[in-house]
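Issue 218. Parser rejects a valid record. Input:
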Amino acid sequence: MEKNPFALNFGKLPSQYIDRDIIIEEIEQELTAEYPQNQCFMLTGTRGAGKTVTMTAIERRISENDNWIIVRLNPTRNMLESLTAKLYDSGKILTQFIDKSINLSKFGIGLNLASNPPVADIESALERILKEIRKQGKRLLVTVDEVSNSQYMREFASCFQILLREDLPVFLIMAGLYNNIHELEDEKDLTFLYRTPRYEMEPLNLTLISDRYMRVFGISQEKAMDMAIMTKGYPFAYQALGKYVWEDKTHEMDTVVLAKVDDALSHYVYRKIWSELSPKDKWYMSYIVTKDSMSTAELLEITKQKKNEFSQYRVRLRDKGLINVSTRGIIQYTLPRFDVFVKNNTSSAAI
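Output the parser choked on:
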C-alpha cells in the first residue's frame, strides 16, 4: 500500500502540503534583498493554522543559499545564550574566530583557547560575532516558534532592536498565537514590533484544497469541493480529513471518517484552545456555534446581554482566531466542526 500522503505532524512538511506562496515569496524577497526594508517578521494565527509549517518552508528556501546561517531558538530558554552557543557550533570559520577573539568560557560556551578576558556580557559577545558574520558576507536568520510574552523573549527582542540599529545582518521570524503576539507588542520597550510586518494565517483557498483532493483520490470535483468546504480552509483539518479518507477503503467522507476527524481535531487542537478560554468565552461560543453565521443583534437577543458587555469577549474571541467579524454586524465561527466539539464539551446554561 502506498504511503499516506497526509500527516498530522506539527511543523513538518507533508507531501500534500499546500504552500502559502504569497507569504513565503514576499518574506524571502525581503530577506534576500540587497537593502532590505524589514528584518523582522511575524506569523500569527490560531493553533493548527500552519504557522510552523510556513516558517519551515521559508527556512528551507533560505538554506539553499550558502551565505545564510539559520538558527532556531527555543523561547523557554535563555535565547541570547542559546543563539551565541549555536553560532559557536555553526561553522569552522566562525568557531575559529570566536576561539581567537572572544572568550565565552564565562558563559559555559566553547573552549578557552585565548588569553583574552571574557566579554562583559552575552550581548557584547553576540554583537562582535555578528560583525564577523557581516565581514564574511553572510547573514543570520533566527526563527522562534510559539512566541509568548516571556522574560527571555522580551530580553531577546530588546537586544534584537539594538542589533538592528547597529546595521548588523540579523533577521528574525517569529510565529505565535494572536493573543501572545499582541501581549508582546504591548510591552512599552518593544513598540518597534508594531511596525513589524505581520502575516496572518488566513484559511487556505478552498479551490486549491478541492483540486488537491480531486487529484489524490480520483474523485469528482463536486465531492472534492464538499470535502474542502468541510475543512473551512483550516490546514490541520485539510490534513486530517485527507489522512482518514485515504485510510478508508472507499475513499469517502462518511460518518466514520468524520468521527475520526473530530477526534483528531479535539485531541491535537481543540482541547488546548478550549482550556485557554474563560468560562464566559466558552458560554458565548456555545451560542455562536449554533449557526454558521449570525448577527450580533441575534446573539445579544438570545444571550440577554448588552452590546457593551459582549464587546470585550468579541475582541478576545476574534484575537484567538475563533470568530470572524470582518463583516459588520455578523459573527461566524472559523474552525471546522468546532460546533460538534463545543456541543460535546459545554452547555448553554446562563452564567
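Fixed in the parser; the record now loads. Confidence is low (pLDDT under 50) at residues 111-119.
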